[in-house]
Design a protein that fits this description.
Helix content is about 80%, strand content about 0%. Helix 3 runs antiparallel to helix 4. The longest helix is centred in the last third of the chain and has 34 residues. It contains four helices and no strands. It has one domain. The protein starts with a helix and ends with a helix. By secondary structure, the chain is mostly helical.
């Protein structure tokens, strides 16, 4: 910040061009990992009676007795969510790391 300010940048310019890009590069990987873990752990929320995909699947299995189809569908949904999020984050990480060089 001191170098940016001494080179004539305003506070806003220093934050926009110097500080925030560096901070975003450092924060993105752990933040993305936590977000993916949150999606995976959301199935545990059904234990405390919050309505989510796993709880709805459990109720559907109880009424339809089609456990294989329902749990396979739930697994595919969770896989799609986490895998697509991983691809998006990998894209951003590669894009940010290519700027760093």
């Amino acid at each position: 910040m001191e170098a940016a300010r001494s080179s004539g940048m305003s506070y806003t310019q220093a934050m926009r061009y110097i500080i925030l890009p560096q901070a975003f590069r450092r924060v993105l990987p752990p933040l993305a990992s936590q977000f993916i873990i949150l999606i995976k752990d959301s199935s545990l929320v059904s234990v405390i009676s919050a309505a989510d995909l796993t709880l709805n699947a459990k109720n559907l299995v109880a009424t339809s007795f089609r456990s294989l189809e329902v749990w396979t569908f739930v697994a595919v949904i969770y896989f799609i969510m986490t895998f697509s999020l991983s691809l998006i984050i990998r894209y951003f990480e590669k894009r940010l790391l290519s700027r760093e060089v």
